[in-house]
Amino acid sequence: MAQPNRGDDSSHYTVLARRYRPQQFADLVGQEPVARALMRAIETGRVAHAYLFTGARGVGKTSAARILAKALNCENGPTPHPCDRCPICQSIASGEDIDVLEFDAASNRGIDEVREIRQNVQYRPNRARYKIYIIDEVHMLTVPAFNALLKTLEEPPPHVKFIFATTEVQKIPITILSRCQRFDFAGISTPRIVERLQQIVSAEGMEADPEALELVARRAGGSMRDAQSLLDQLLAFAGGRLTGEQVHRLLGTAHVERVVALASAMVDQDAKTALHLLGQAADEGLQLGELLDQLIDYWRDLMVVAAAGDDAPPLTCPPRFRDTLRHHARRLPIDSILAGLDILGATKARMRGSSHGRVLAEMAVVRLSRLEHLVSLAELARGLAEGSEVSPAPSRSRPSAPPLGLLAAAPADAGASAEQKKKPEPVRAVPPAPPVPLELTAERVSQLWPVVLDEIGPASATDLKKAGLPAISGPNALVLRFPPEYNAAREHCQRPQVVSRIEEVLRKITGQACAVRIESASAEGPDDVSAAPPLDAERSQFRSRRWRDEAERDPLVRRALDLLGAQIVRVDDGFGTVPKALPERAEETETLQE
Amino acid sequence: MSWQRVRGHEPLVAAFSQAERSGRLAHAYFFFGPRGVGKRLFADEFAKALLCEGRSAERLEACDWCAACRLVAAGTHPDLVAAQRPEGSSAIPIDVVRELCRHLALKPARGGRKIAILDDADDLYDPVTNHAAANAFLKTLEEPPPGSVLVLIGTDPEQQLPTIISRCQLICFRPLPGELMTELLRQQGITDPALVRRLVRLSGGSLGRALALADPALWEFRRTLIDGLCRTPPEPTGLARRWTQFVEEAGKDSASQRQRASLGLGLVIDFWASALARSVGGDQPPLEPEDESRLQTTIGRFTPEQLLHRLDRCLEAEIQLERRAQLPLVLEGLVDALIRR
Q1: ipTM, 2 decimals?
Q2: Rg from Cα positions in chain B
């Protein structure tokens, strides 16, 4: 192992990011457009008097400013290729030149400092061609300081050049912006960073696995300095050849195997295993925030594969896991993948600063595991029209299943493992409805009503209890009759928001729309507030019979019945009377059963 | 003594020694990890080792007897400067950072190094002042005078400006493992095995947090709290009142009241999280044996979605506590949301 070069001061190490600062325009990795433009400006003698360099951290702004200063002041210049040998070049590179003044605007941000600059610009440079002010972190100047700079910035003496550098261009006043030539520094692509890291590792006389460098580069998120800081740390902390393993250990990140295993559990909707894996990772000291980032990467890959096929944009998933990735992408509809990404992203944001990171991660895992497989209506309709199977994603009914497993009639939540073995269930459309809508019978109502009350909450339930059990006034219509002594309770329950709340809860529990009417039990007839007009039970039954016949005759419905092995459970009122709404209607009509 | 008093971070000690041996010690480190795992202790020991005048060149370990070591131990070494958020302010003022940078710019008084430690680095983040303190740090952090070492201590790099993080090497402090926690708690005089078990589980590997949780009154209150959450019919006002009362018993000082509220909240979150894990088939044992039946009731009453919703609400309350919302309001709102449907 070669002795590392310790930089200019022999007794102390200088970090890579400083030692490998670019010294020529050609060295600016990933900033070719900027470098070309600046070189061209120097060649043609069209150098402006004020430049503004912006871009993310660690992409080369300060370095470019110093190179430009050298190029302008080099003894052999102005030249696009500063010699790096003359005293001026050397003193600029070490930041000691008397004519290149580097200011830290974050520490000297007041108007007094700017006034000082204004007073000094009038004096000619000591030995070089130009007096160059490099003002770094310029976004931190105060507003009066910016304003004090305006006149000087617009018409400086011919021997003065300003170069501003900042990461936050949106904080610069527009009056400053309009006086500068602005160059936006792009983020650096991962392959370019890897290339540069490889050069550095060789120059340091070390060795590294490509996988390790790839991990470092990706982690840096487009910033060369981030990558170099990390590489520096790896070289310092880990002896010998750099491996992916060492990078993972240093960063507290998980191996891809782990991430894929966790993702598999979630795709299989196996919350238990997923929680177990997560707990294991946390107990071993992995950083949960990092793990979440890795899951976001994986889900992003899923999205890319699902939307554009796996040869489209570059994937972060290593090649040996591509088959699993493709398999997962086939199993999840794209809407589920997008919903998953939303969950992961939101969790990541909430983790920042929370002391309950683990609980947040667990919640995200459970949510992802329980995400219904969403199928868009368009996809469903297209599948029907083409006569192919509509992506038979094994969708397990969960969230919307009636609580307490009370409804024996419905094939709800019959235990996860048993259900997993069954053949794929047919598709359920968005939004997921309970497995089978329940016809309301007197017996079922008496069974359901306590659940409904429970769901509605104590405030309204107390009043509703006064009415006793609701009576059935027609298909999917209930009527609650309050004894006259409970007028106050009745009035409360009659309010539209209460009625609609009851209806909503009923719909959630029974899986179909139910109309609710509140009446006074006295004989003076219905006190009609609710939506549905009272229907004579017999007539309505007759009518729904007619609609059902019509539905059975409908070619689209029949095709759907054949194709999906479905069964007509319910026909909405008015089915088939509006022909152009048919496709959608047909689908509402089917609620499919095994 | 030296590194022996830093417990649970042996890999890091080895890593720094390795860096010193290979001559690749960087000039800026960001220590991060949960509160109360020994980051500051580590930083102090690290500084002492760097400044030590009697150690061998091979080992990064303070000798603890030379003059420099004694000066560090006494807090009077001229080349070591430590700063933190001043008492009573919510962020680090720019002057603290300027002072630190000015100090670093001076030549070392004794040896070849100057060390700066900035604690509470999370509080560099301050949108009110446009992150003035953090920005004032950038140039020094990137190119400090030769021989300087800066150590920033915080909990989470994501709370820093990316420009700060990009200039530092990140050193991650892991939570302390269970056995070590047990041992350390015993050293602090906490020996009751049941209590130790609870603390180990709830502290998330932070000795500081474990010690805060080791308050008998808190565990007494936990029973009331969980009972109140599980009982039917629910009685939100009573429970909220008792919680507020419990919090106010911590004293008049708002910080300790807040801490008590947040400890209670942590217990509730743990309970709901256990219930959630149970309801999706997990089989983690409950925190207390007597919780078993309550967990069962809870799972019977709520679907996993409802449990998730309640956890969301708890985490929201955590944020409210941090933002110093009115305590009784936070607690009342929370209890009401948790109990009602």
Answers
A1: 0.87
A2: 23
